[in-house]
Design a protein that fits this description.
Blueprint: H1 2-14, H2 27-43, H3 53-65, E1 71-72, H4 73-80, H5 88-100, E2 105-108, E3 127-130, H6 132-137, E4 145-148, E5 155-159, H7 166-170, E6 172-175, E7 180-183, H8 188-199, E8 215-217, E9 230-233, E10 235-240, E11 243-248, H9 255-267, E12 275-278, E13 286-289, H10 296-306, E14 310-313, E15 318-321, E16 324-327, H11 330-371, H12 384-395, H13 408-415, H14 419-423, H15 427-449, H16 451-466, E17 475-476, H17 484-487, E18 492-497, E19 502-504, E20 511-516, E21 521-526, E22 530-535, E23 540-541, E24 546-551, E25 560-566, E26 573-579, E27 589-590, E28 599-606, E29 610-618, E30 628-632, E31 638-640, E32 646-649, E33 653-664, E34 669-674, E35 679-681, E36 687-692, E37 698-702, E38 706-710, E39 722-727, E40 734-740, E41 745-751, E42 760-761, E43 770-775, E44 781-786, E45 794-797, H18 798-801, E46 812-815, E47 819-825
Helix pairs in contact: 3-4, 4-5, 8-16, 11-15
C-alpha cells in the first residue's frame, strides 16, 4: 500500500512533464540518406555530361522515342516516368527548361517566353524532338555505361556520352541539403574556342553569356567560384528627351518583374516616371515615358540604382564528380569536359578501328574461302564437326597474313554464305573492298596517333555546323559605380527649426533647406564650432544655434568651408579652410581647438572652392592701433577639418563683413572619357577631353547630323552613334560634307553653334540625307574618292571651298557624282590668336587626413 501511494504521489508531481525518448536504429541515418539523395539525384548536375538525373532521363527517353518526327511532350513525360520515380509535373517543367535554352530540343508549339516569363502550354499541346546537335554530341550506346532503372525493369545511362561542355553551355541552378549550385550559361562558340585553346596548350578565359542579352560586368567573376559576383544590366537607351527604351533585360528577370520593380521605385519616390508601355513580342521593347523636366540620363542611372534593371549574381560552381559534390571553377569544368570529350572520341575511334579490322578479317577470310574453292572440301563430310575441320584445314595455307587467329565462329559465318553470292563473287571488287577497308583502318590509326589534332578538328566542325546564329548576346562592359544619392529623385523637402534645433521633412512650417530623398544625409554646423552628419528623417534633434545646413555629398573635395572662430572664452581667433569628405554618421566633431565657450565668428560653404575677401573689425579696447583690415581667404591653403588654422588676431573681434565675393581657387577639373563604359570620369580613365572650368561645355555630334553642347556632368549617358566628343571651343568652326537626299547631290558647309543650349540638325531632314564626314579642325583637308573609276580623286581645302555660314545654311554644292569614300587628311597648320587670360590662383587642394586629431598651426605668422 505504501508503494502504491508513493507511485501515485510521483505521478501527481511529474505527470505533466514531457518524456524524452532517444531515437536509435534506422532513424539516425535517415537525414543523411535524404541529404545524399537530394544532392546526388535531384539538385546538382554531373560534371561528365552536365545533366541532372531528371534531365538525363528526359534525354534518354527522347532518344528511345526518336523516329525523326515530333512527339507530344505528354508522351515523352510518360515515357520518362519509367526511369524517373517522380511526378509528371516536375518532368514536364524540367523539359520546358531544357527546351527554352534552345540547344538540345527542337520545339513545336507554345513553350513559354523567357523574356516575358509566360509559361508554356500544357504538355498535351506541345511537341518536341531531339535537335540535330543533340543527336550528334549526346548519344552513343557503344560508349555508354548502363545501369538498372529504379524498378529494375529498364536500363538507363549512368552518364550520357556528351562530347561538348554542355554544363557550361546550358548553366545549372539547384538547391540541395546543405549546399547549392549556380553555374551561369556561357556562349556556344566561345566554349568551343576555349576548348581548342586548351587542347593547343594555350590559356583561355570564358565568361557567361545570357539568352536575354543585356550588359554585364565580369571583372569580379572569379572563374565562377564561390565569392565571385557578376553585375548584369538592362540595355537602356534614350529614344527622345521624354522617352527611354529598354531593348534587352538582365539575366534572371522578365519584362513583368522588371516593370513591377520600376513601378515600386516610382511609388517610393526613388524615380519619377509618367507611364510604362510594354511592347515586347519576339524582342523586348519597354517604353518609359518621363514627365517634363526630368533628366533621361539621371533616370537611367536611377533605374540601375533602384530597380532590377541592374542585378548582382553570385555564381557557385558545384558539380557531382565520382559520386561526390565538388566545388570547381568554370575553367576547371571546361578542362575536364574537354578531356572527357577527347576520351570519348578515343573510345569511338578504338571501337571503329576494331569494327573495321573485324570487317577486314572476315572479308579476307571470305575471299580466301571463295577464291580457293574451299567450300568444295565439305562436300564429302557427313558431320558438322567434320565440316568445321575441313574448312579449318583448307584455310591454313592462306591465313598467314591475317592479323588474328581464325576462330570457330569465323568458320560458322563462312558456312552461312549463300550459293548465289559465291556464284557471283567478283575477285576485283573484293580486292577493292579490302583495300578500302585498309585505307579506313590506316586513317583511324592516324587519328588515334594524332588524337589532339583530331579533337581540335572535331570542335572546329561543331562550330562550323552549329555555331551560326549563336553569337554572343550579352555585351561585356566595365560598370561604373552609381552613387545612389546622386541619382535618387528628391521628392521630399528638408526643413530646419534653428531655434529649437530640429531638422526633418515633417517641419513644413519652418525654414525650407533643400529637396531631399530618404537616403540622403544632412550636414550641420553649429555656432559653437561643432559639426555632425545625420540621415534624413521626419524629425531629428541636432542641436541649437545652427549656422549652416545642407545635403551632404560623400567624398566631395570641391566643396570648401571657410571659417573664422574664437578659441575659448577669451582666446585668440583663427581662420581655416577645409573640406569634409567622410565621417561617422551621428557623431559630433569639434572644428575648433576644443576649449570651452569657443564660438564661430564667420562661416561660408563654397561649392567650387571659392575664397572671398572679408573685413575684420576689432573692439576698441586699450591701445590697439589697427581696428580694421581686410583678410583674403585665397591666401590660405585648404587643409583637413581637424587643423587649428592660422591666427587672425589675439584681440576680441567686434564683427566680420564680406568685402568681395570669392573666386574659385581650385584648378580647372580634368575630365576623361572612358570608351569602355561610355562615361565621363575624373579618375584618369580613357581619353583626356581637357580641363574644364564652370562655364566650359562639351561638343557632341552624332551620325544623324545632330550637334549639341552640354555641361560635362559625370552622370551623362552617350548614344552609340556619337562620332564627335570634345571640349567645345566657341570660336572654332565645324566643317561637314553630306549627301542631300532631296536634291541628290553632295554639299560642303562650315558653321558655328549659335545656340549652345539647343540640339540642332545641320544636314537636311530628308530620310535619304546622310552625313559623310565632319571635322572640327580649324583648316581641314579631305580626299574625295568617287565610285566611277574614270573620275580622279580630289583633294579639297574646306576652308577655301566655303566660308563660315549659319548652321541652317545649305552649303556649297560639291558634286552630283556618287562618292565612294571621303578620307580625312592632315589639316593645314593653324595658330589660334593669343587671348589675355585673367590669372587664377590654382592652389592644389591639400587632402589632410580626416581622422587626424592635430590642432597644430600651419606655420604662418599671426596678422596681429
Amino acid at each position: 500500500m505504501q508503494e502504491e501511494d508513493n507511485k501515485e504521489h510521483l505521478n501527481e508531481d511529474f505527470g505533466n512533464q514531457e518524456t524524452i525518448t532517444k531515437v536509435t536504429g534506422m532513424y539516425k541515418d535517415w537525414f543523411l540518406d535524404y541529404a545524399s539523395y537530394v544532392i546526388l539525384e535531384r539538385a546538382v548536375p554531373g560534371i561528365k555530361d552536365g545533366f541532372k538525373p531528371v534531365q538525363r532521363r528526359i534525354m534518354h527517353s527522347m532518344k528511345d522515342l526518336d523516329d525523326g518526327r515530333y512527339n507530344k511532350v505528354a508522351n515523352i513525360v510518360g515515357h520518362t516516368m519509367q526511369y524517373h520515380p517522380h511526378g509528371d509535373a516536375s518532368i514536364a517543367d524540367a523539359m520546358v527548361q531544357i527546351g527554352q535554352k534552345d540547344l538540345l530540343i527542337d520545339m513545336q508549339g507554345n513553350w513559354g517566353n523567357i523574356l516575358t516569363g509566360d509559361r508554356a502550354a500544357a504538355s498535351r499541346y506541345i511537341e518536341a524532338r531531339l535537335s540535330k546537335f543533340a543527336l550528334d554530341v549526346v548519344f552513343n550506346p557503344k560508349t555508354t555505361e548502363w545501369q538498372a532503372s529504379y524498378d529494375g525493369r529498364k536500363k538507363e545511362p549512368v552518364d550520357l556520352p556528351v562530347k561538348f561542355p554542355m554544363l557550361l553551355a546550358q548553366g545549372a541552378e539547384g538547391i540541395a541539403v546543405g549546399l547549392s549550385t549556380k553555374i551561369l550559361p556561357h556562349n556556344f562558340n566561345e566554349l568551343i574556342d576555349a576548348s581548342i585553346k586548351y587542347l593547343k596548350g594555350r590559356s583561355f578565359n570564358i565568361v557567361p553569356d545570357f539568352l536575354t542579352g543585356g550588359i554585364a560586368d565580369f571583372s569580379n567573376y572569379n572563374d565562377g567560384k564561390r565569392g565571385g559576383k557578376v553585375r548584369v544590366r538592362a540595355k537602356i537607351s534614350t529614344l527622345d528627351k521624354k522617352t527611354l527604351v529598354i531593348n534587352e533585360i538582365p539575366f534572371g528577370t522578365t519584362t513583368s518583374s522588371l516593370i513591377d520593380s520600376i513601378l515600386k521605385a516610382n511609388d517610393k519616390g526613388k524615380i519619377k516616371i509618367k507611364q510604362i508601355e510594354d511592347n515586347t513580342a519576339a524582342n523586348v521593347e519597354i517604353l518609359i515615358h518621363l514627365p517634363n523636366g526630368i533628366s533621361p540620363d539621371k533616370t537611367i542611372d536611377a533605374l540601375y540604382a533602384f530597380t532590377t534593371c541592374e542585378n548582382s549574381i553570385s555564381p557557385l560552381g558545384c558539380v557531382i564528380e565520382d559520386n561526390k559534390p565538388r566545388f570547381l571553377g568554370v575553367s576547371e569544368v571546361l578542362k575536364q569536359s574537354t578531356d572527357h570529350t577527347v576520351d570519348l572520341l578515343k573510345q569511338e575511334l578504338e571501337i571503329q578501328l576494331n569494327e573495321l579490322e573485324e570487317q577486314w578479317h572476315f572479308a579476307s577470310l571470305e575471299r580466301i574461302f571463295i577464291e580457293n574453292r574451299i567450300y568444295r572440301d565439305i562436300e564429302e563430310e557427313e558431320t558438322w564437326k567434320g565440316v568445321i575441320k575441313a574448312i579449318d584445314e583448307g584455310l591454313k595455307p592462306y591465313i598467314k597474313h591475317l592479323k588474328r587467329a581464325v576462330t570457330e565462329e569465323d568458320i560458322v559465318r563462312l558456312t552461312e554464305i549463300r550459293i548465289k553470292k559465291i556464284s557471283k563473287f567478283d575477285i576485283d571488287k573484293a580486292k577493292q573492298f579490302i583495300e578500302s577497308l585498309e585505307e579506313k583502318i590506316a586513317q583511324v590509326k592516324d587519328y588515334l596517333a594524332n588524337l589532339i589534332d583530331y579533337a581540335i578538328d572535331y570542335f572546329k566542325n561543331l562550330k562550323i555546323k552549329y555555331g551560326k546564329g549563336k553569337e554572343r548576346k550579352t555585351e561585356i562592359r566595365l560598370f561604373d559605380d552609381i552613387v545612389a544619392t546622386k541619382v535618387v529623385m528628391r521628392n521630399s523637402k528638408l526643413y530646419v527649426n534653428r531655434e529649437e534645433g530640429f531638422v526633418g521633412t515633417s517641419l513644413k512650417r519652418d525654414e525650407y533647406v533643400a529637396d531631399c530623398a530618404d537616403i540622403d544625409d544632412v550636414i550641420i554646423f553649429r555656432k559653437d564650432g561643432t559639426m555632425m552628419i545625420t540621415k534624413v528623417d521626419s524629425k531629428t534633434f541636432v542641436g541649437k544655434n545652427i549656422i549652416h545646413i545642407a545635403i551632404f555629398k560623400k567624398r566631395d573635395k570641391r566643396t570648401v568651408y571657410n571659417m573664422i572662430y574664437r578659441d575659448g572664452r577669451n582666446g585668440p581667433s583663427y581662420m581655416k579652410r577645409f573640406h569634409v569628405t567622410s565621417i561617422t554618421r551621428d557623431k559630433e566633431y569639434d572644428l575648433t581647438n576644443g576649449n570651452k565657450a569657443s564660438i564661430v565668428h564667420y562661416f561660408t560653404a563654397n561649392p567650387n572652392g571659392e575664397a572671398e575677401v572679408v573685413t575684420i573689425n576689432l573692439r576698441s579696447v586699450g591701445s590697439i592701433k589697427k581696428l580694421k583690415w581686410d583678410l583674403d581667404f585665397s591666401e590660405l591653403a585648404i587643409k583637413g577639418r581637424a587643423v587649428r588654422g592660422n591666427t587672425v588676431t589675439k584681440y576680441a573681434i567686434r564683427k566680420i563683413e564680406l568685402k568681395s565675393e570669392g573666386v574659385s581657387t581650385l584648378k580647372p577639373r580634368k575630365i576623361w572619357f572612358d570608351d569602355t563604359v561610355q562615361r565621363l570620369n575624373v579618375d584618369n580613365r580613357g581619353e583626356l577631353l581637357g580641363e574644364f572650368k564652370a562655364a566650359d561645355r562639351l561638343l557632341i555630334i552624332n551620325q544623324k547630323g545632330e550637334v549639341k553642347t552640354i555641361k560635362p556632368e559625370l552622370t551623362t549617358h552617350f548614344d552609340s552613334d556619337m562620332i564627335v566628343l570634345e571640349k567645345w571651343e566657341p570660336e572654332k568652326p565645324i566643317s561637314a560634307i553630306y549627301f542631300d537626299g532631296e536634291k541628290e547631290r553632295y554639299y560642303i558647309k562650315r558653321f558655328m553653334i549659335d545656340n549652345p543650349n539647343k540640339e540642332e540638325l545641320f544636314i537636311s531632314e530628308h530620310p535619304k540625307s546622310q552625313l559623310e564626314i565632319v571635322s572640327t579642325d580649324y583648316r581641314p583637308m579631305v580626299e574625295i574618292v568617287f565610285s566611277k573609276r574614270s573620275l580622279e580623286d580630289m583633294e579639297i581645302n574646306l576652308e577655301e571651298f566655303i566660308a563660315v555660314k549659319g548652321i541652317k545654311a545649305l552649303g556649297n554644292q560639291l558634286t552630283t557624282e556618287k562618292i565612294r569614300t571621303v578620307n580625312r587628311l592632315e589639316p593645314l597648320p593653324y595658330e589660334p590668336p593669343i587671348v589675355d587670360n585673367v590669372e587664377v590662383n590654382d592652389e592644389e587642394v591639400v587632402d589632410d587626413s580626416e581622422d587626424s586629431n592635430s590642432k597644430d598651426n600651419d606655420g604662418q605668422t599671426a596678422l596681429f
